[in-house]
Amino acid sequence: MNPWWWALIGAVAVLLLALYLSMTAGRLDRLHRRLDASETALDVQLLHRSALVLDLASTAIFDPASTVVLADSAHAARAAQDDDRIARALIESNLTRVLAETLSDREEVDELGDDAKALQMLAELRATCVRVQLSRRFLNDGVRACRQVRKQRFVRWFNLAGRTPWPETFEMDDTPPPGLALH
Q: For 20-168, which CATH class?
């Protein structure tokens, strides 16, 4: 073969590799931006949940012991916003557990909702608990997709992720309280 053909084949191979690397880097960048947006959305939903729990605790529809436990757990969840992921996940899981214990029976929850404002707050808490669950799942799905791309050979060899930290899932108990379940 003529050396020009070898040069042409080499140039095409380098061009295809550059195109592949560029597309993969773009995909990785989009995945990282999606993870940032997902983390922000989860943070917003967790803060909204703890704010609703504090508001519910201040309505005096619960017995005093439940009110104190709910308020303490919600305050801890709000204060844990700047903690590391593992500590925050444990604190948020604790708030979920407290909610599940306090709002364990649908009939008792219906009795709590005699007040229209309390009923509206319980409905909003139900919706927020579902949004927390969805936000966490969306974040963890994004983390799995990002990890899958980052494990590819060319991504590692050419360091396409740069200095971006390895994505981590957010593992917590996000089960909505049984007493807030829809009929």
A: mainly alpha
